[in-house]
Structures are given as C-alpha cells and as structure tokens.
Amino acid sequence: MPERDDEEREFDIRWADGAEHKEPSARARMLAARWKHDPPGPVPFRPEPRHVGRGRRRSPWMSAAVVLGCLAAVIVLLGYLDFRPPF
Q: Is the pTM higher than 0.90?
C-alpha cells in the first residue's frame, strides 16, 4: 500500500477495534496504581439518602402548603397595595 498524505489518511474504526493490545486511559492507569497500594473499601449499591436540614424528612404536603400560603400572601399583599381608601 503506497504512502498517502496526512490529509488523505482516514481513521478506520474497525482497524482500531481489532487491535490486539488496547492501552488503558490515563485515569485508568492512575487508579490502578493508586488501588495497588491502597485498595478502595466496599461501596453499597445504593447508599442511604442524606437528609437535609434537622434530620427530619418533610412531607410533600407541607411543602405544597408553604408554597400555596406564600402565593396567597403575595396575592393579598398585591390586592391591598392596589386598594386605596377614598380620603
């Protein structure tokens, strides 16, 4: 096969996939070197969710009530500001 210019060369994915030796990525090499001396501990499949706030889980109804209460307060405030007594 004659040598072609760099512009004419094309990467052949089938040729690359068929390679006998595939070099790992830099991150894979770094993790392999780190884990060789200090292997990672076991990790649960699905960890327990961390609760935000005081440790209690809030009801979705409570969140909806707070949102609707704030919305009602804004509506009342806007209505009050628009109302001007006639004196």
A: no
